[in-house]
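forwarding from the other thread:

> can someone predict this with MF3?

sure thing
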Amino acid sequence: MISIKSSREIALMKKAGDILATTFDVLEPLCIPGTTTKHLSEVAEKVIRDAGGIPEEKGYYGYPAAICASVNDVVVHGIPSSYKLKDGDIISIDIVVSYQGYMADACRTFTVGKVSQEAMRLIEVTKECFYKAMEVCKPGNRVGDISHAIQTHAEKNGYSVTRDFTGHGLGRSMHEDPSVPNFGIPGTGPILREGMTIAVEPIILQGKKESRVLKDGWTAVTCDHKLAAHYENSIVITKDGYEILTKHEEGEN
Ligand code: MF3
Ligand code: CO
């Protein structure tokens, strides 16, 4: 069942999204050689709680940290650890914040020191995939239009899209209907309606589309150990388009 949110619910999700955007603002400058991913998680948890939010990933099906910190060939769900970031790494930080029971979910891929041209291009194209998807986000279009926009832009640039992880509805829960895959056929799937809230999250792989989960039960890596990038925002479908809930009105993140 796809729920339609009231303006009160959307305002609470926006507040959660605002806390999330602030968290990215604090974390981005910390993504430098020598910082541990565990430190990033601890800082994020403090920023979120100080703002009156809850880091919802912590304890989610037993997940042990406040953020997912996925470095280089880690596709999603990298567990923060004593690993020290090093020059040339890329790190995808995926965070879910709730505020008064309402969720916002977003991810950014940051660079550490000086990264390769190839890595920069992967990160840029991944973000572009999100905005290609936004072009079709309006009432009457379908989830498959979003999926197709992401897949087309990624593959046109020589990349592949994951089949193993999808975007999703969200609100009172982190994951609600509908599922929003990163691949699909235009004109198919659920119809987008005003008040629907979804997380759109291109997860783009430099090499082949296959990933596998490590023995820790969480960390998903690319099978070919090439890079992965991830760009995600929570959005609401509006009367004539969409609004992003997890970005400051102005500013980078
Ligand atoms: N934030 C992820 C998503 O985009 C979910 C993280 S799973 C968790 O759906 F266990 F880490 F919380
Ligand atoms: Co998500």
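The first strand starts at residue 54 and ends at 55. thats all i got for now
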